[in-house]
Every structure is written in structure tokens, then in C-alpha cells.
Write a structure and sequence with these properties.
about 45% helix, alpha/beta, 20 helices, binds iron/sulfur cluster, 2 domains, about 475 residues
């Protein structure tokens, strides 16, 4: 039985319910009347349940698919405008005691260089990131209670927040570490993290156990129930994700949305973000050995259907994806992008020698942050370095209610312009700066309230005069 409110993983991610959802979607994928009714509901912009969304994902009527893509694009515009929030991952340590068969950090990989940053090395990495213009990081570390205990993570967060190099500052640290205890989540909350991110990898229990043959991550229930413990520990914003390619994408899609429904039912807040990584080549990992890889068309459809199903949940695409693929999914629903990323431990300060590689996966989009920012602006997007919400206490249900009512836009758009201006002043190349300055000028009249417009104009002048960190 499917119980969104249950606290046991196998009840809120009920295998039977996923299978029934897949049969229902398959049986109705040509049912125009039902698809029209689902689309009509989706146009209310309040989202869809997993069954409805699964029907849209399976739908193979060309005309209806065009409507699905158009609606995803419209919802993206309505909720996120033309803004894209920028971030970068920071790998602290690749020591790991788990046996995940798709990740080169697995314990048995003796080829990969094992590295763990000292606090001094973290300082240097953070300065390198600040010098690129980043304000928002996602911390990554393998699971290893000896090498990467929670104290190490907490100390690293403190170090990161303390570094102020020139005009640089990391203002939001999101954390992607292994499932842990309520007590440790409380410590992370107290350290001032933004979002706690944990990818489920796959929701299919049997596959999950095979893909995680050894180590603490083998425990499906402990991993799947992690977000509930995080929320019990006071973390308001959590980020979900699956690694597409491990299991059938239709299964993952339905279960991912069920996980979101569960969080909403139990904690009153759905996921803050959803990430959609696809498996990539890495040190001793060949993506070809996994049978469930998805092509770019399917990937785009998944992004569009997630956008329609959970309009108020941010969607993240990393540099695992190529420039062309990122371009394709941006307008279908993606709201956050990484740029200039290094997926190795210590990779921002200097490139690694060939015989000492420590990266988690091959980066597909290898452009610099400046190139990514310029590319976004050339397409009419506003790259945003905004981190205002959690710093203003807009988290959890407070954030979600502003999001659902659409009011958050009144903060996002001005904040995007002010943080972009900071980037242009401090870090952009001359060509990027020129394009950006013109974009900011074009965008100011789009701020609806005159009072806010005046405030933004004043703050833009203050930024030109050397002041920083304005936010609404
Ligand atoms: S996916 Fe995470 S837990 Fe698994 S081996 Fe890689 S770093 Fe370790
Ligand atoms: S105002 Fe809040 S929701 Fe909007 S971009 Fe900034 S941090 Fe994100």
C-alpha cells in the first residue's frame, strides 16, 4: 500500500504503487481525453501527482507532446522568469568506504588518487572559486567516518564562510554528504548550510542493493529516509535527485515525485531542488555497462515533466551535461546551473597531473564561468549569484508559500540584477561586462514596483562605488 505519510521507505516509495503507476501511464499514453484533462489541471500551476505526471511522460502523441513542452516552458517563465542561479561544486575529500558500482570513489578502486583537503587547501580552493565570481557552493565528500567525520565537514563549512578575499564571499554552502543521523543534521543546520542534497541514485530497492553491495550506503531504508531525519534535525531545504541510467527512467521518475509528495505530506514542504544527473564516464566506470542510459530526447522530456509536476521546485543541471544539452533543457525548466566546475579534489587551484587524477566524473561542459555567464546572457538569460533567501530566513514552508504564490519573483529578479552587477564589476571579462551592463539596463524597467526599481537603481550605483551584498 502507498502511504505518502508513512515514515518507512518501502511504504512511501511503495514498489507496487510505482508498478501500478507505470501500467496506468502505459495504458493511458494514447488517451487524449485524459491527457487533456491532466494538462488542464497542470495549467493551474499547482503541480500534478506522480500518476498524472507519469502519463505525460509516457505520452507519445506528437501534438500533445508539443503542448507538454510549451506548458513546461511557460511554467518555467512564470515561476523563474529568465533567471538562472549559478553555483559550483567543491570536492573536499574522495575517501569513501562505500562500494557504489557507478562511482570511481568506491572503496575498492585502488587506482584513483585519494585526496582530502586540509583547511589551508580549502582556503586556497575557496579563494580560487571567489576569484571566478562564485557565491554559492555545493560541498561534496565521500562517506568515511575516519577521514571525513562530521567534525571535518563542519570545520570546512566554517572555514569557507570565513574567507573574504577581495570582494569575494561564499554566501551559501549547500552540502551533499552521505545519509547521517538527526544529531548530525542538526549540527549541519547550526553551521548555516543552505540546502542538504542527497541523491537517491535509484529508488528501486532491489537494484539499489545490487548497486551498493558494500558499506553503510547499502541500507536502502536508512538512505531513503535520510531527508526525514534531515528535516527532523531542522534542515528546512532538501534537494532530491536520482542518477539516471542506473534503473528504468520511468520507475525513477514516478518514485522521485512520490518522494516529493511524502515530504510535503509529512513535513509540509516539498523538495527545494531536484537534480537530474545522468551517469558519466569516470576513472574505472564505463557508462556503457549500465543498460538504462537515456538519450537526450528522453532527458528533455523528463525535465519538462518534472517542471510541470512540481513548478515551485528548483531544478539543477550540472556540467555532466554538454553545452548543447544544457541549452536544450534550460528553457524547459532548469533553474540552476553549475559553471567552471572541477570534479576533482583540489582541482580549482591547479589542474591535476595525469597520474594523480581524483575526479568523480568527466566534466562535459568545460567552459569557464565567464564563458557560461556570457553564453547565458547571449540567450537572454540573467545569470544570478543570488543567495538571499536563506540569509533572510526564507526557508522551508515560508519559502514555499512565497514560491507557490509567485511572490518570490519580486525578490529573485532584483537580486539577480544586483548580484550580476557585482559579478560584472569584479570578475567579468571586458566583453562579458559590456553585454551584462546592457542586459541589466534592459531588465530594470521589468521590475514592476517603482519603489523597488528606485532601490535597485540606487544599489547598482552603490555597487559601482564599491559597496557589495545588497539583497531583498
Ligand atoms: S557515490 Fe558517494 S558514497 Fe558512493 S562511492 Fe561515490 S562518493 Fe562514495
Ligand atoms: S531570492 Fe531566493 S529564490 Fe530567488 S534567486 Fe535569490 S535565493 Fe533563490
Amino acid at each position: 500500500m502507498y502511504h505518502p505519510k508513512a515514515l518507512k521507505a518501502e511504504e512511501f516509495i511503495s514498489h507496487d504503487e510505482v508498478l501500478e503507476t507505470l501500467s496506468y501511464a502505459d495504458a493511458n499514453k494514447h488517451n487524449t481525453q485524459l491527457i487533456d484533462a491532466i494538462l488542464e489541471k497542470a495549467r493551474l500551476r499547482k503541480g500534478l501527482d506522480h500518476r498524472e505526471a507519469a502519463v505525460l511522460l509516457d505520452c507519445d502523441i506528437e501534438e500533445k507532446n508539443r503542448e507538454i513542452y510549451a506548458l513546461a516552458e511557460q511554467i518555467k517563465k512564470d515561476f523563474y522568469g529568465n533567471r538562472i542561479v549559478m553555483f559550483a561544486p567543491l570536492y573536499l575529500s574522495n575517501y569513501c568506504i562505500n562500494g557504489c558500482v557507478y562511482c570511481p570513489y568506491h572503496l575498492k578502486n585502488k587506482r584513483i588518487a585519494r585526496k582530502k583537503l586540509t583547511q589551508d587547501e580549502i582556503r586556497r580552493e575557496v579563494i580560487a572559486l571567489q576569484d571566478m565570481g562564485h557565491k554559492r557552493l555545493a560541498l561534496e565528500a565521500g562517506e568515511d567516518p575516519v577521514n571525513n567525520p562530521i567534525e571535518y565537514i563542519l570545520e570546512s563549512i566554517k572555514t569557507i564562510y570565513s574567507i573574504k578575499h577581495k570582494n569575494g564571499a561564499i554566501r551559501r554552502v549547500n552540502v551533499n554528504i552521505a545519509a547521517t543521523t538527526v544529531e548530525n543534521y542538526r549540527k549541519l543546520r547550526d553551521a548555516g548550510i543552505g540546502t542538504y542534497i542527497l541523491f537517491q541514485e535509484t529508488y528501486h530497492k532491489e537494484s539499489y542493493e545490487k548497486l551498493h553491495p558494500t558499506g553503510p550506503k547499502h541500507d536502502y531504508a536508512y538512505h531513503t529516509e535520510a531527508m526525514d531525519r534531515a528535516m527532523q534535525g531542522g534542515i528546512d531545504d532538501v534537494g532530491l535527485g536520482v542518477l539516471f541510467g542506473l534503473e528504468l527512467y520511468r520507475y525513477e521518475f514516478a518514485a522521485l515525485l512520490m518522494h516529493g509528495e511524502h515530504l510535503e505530506a509529512v513535513h509540509g514542504v516539498g523538495p527545494h531542488t531536484i537534480s537530474v544527473p545522468r551517469i558519466r564516464r569516470a576513472d574505472d566506470i564505463d557508462p556503457g555497462v549500465f543498460d538504462n542510459g537515456i538519450d537526450d530526447d528522453t532527458f528533455a522530456k523528463i525535465v519538462a515533466c518534472i517542471r510541470i509536476a512540481v513548478p515551485y521546485t528548483g531544478m539543477i543541471v550540472s556540467t555532466r551535461e554538454s553545452k548543447a544539452c544544457r541549452e536544450r533543457v534550460l528553457h524547459l525548466g532548469v533553474s540552476q546551473l553549475s559553471g567552471g566546475s572541477r570534479t576533482s579534489v583540489g582541482g580549482y587551484v591547479e589542474p591535476e597531473p595525469e597520474d594523480e587524477k581524483s575526479e568523480q566524473f568527466d566534466v562535459s561542459d568545460k567552459r569557464t564561468l565567464d564563458e557560461v555567464v556570457r553564453w547565458l546572457m547571449d540567450m537572454g538569460y540573467i545569470p544570478s549569484f543570488c543567495t538571499a533567501c536563506y540569509r533572510e530566513g526564507r526557508t522551508g514552508d515560508r519559502f514555499m508559500s512565497l514560491c507557490k504564490s509567485g511572490q518570490i519573483q519580486n525578490c529573485c529578479h532584483p537580486n539577480a540584477l544586483m548580484t550580476l552587477k557585482e559579478y560584472l564589476m569584479d570578475y567579468a571579462s571586458p566583453g562579458t561586462r559590456q553585454i551584462g551592463e546592457a542586459l541589466v539596463e534592459v531588465e530594470i524597467p521589468n521590475i514592476p514596483r517603482d519603489k523597488v526599481k528606485d532601490l535597485v537603481r540606487r544599489n547598482l550605483t552603490n555597487i559601482e562605488n564599491g559597496q557589495r551584498d545588497f539583497r531583498l
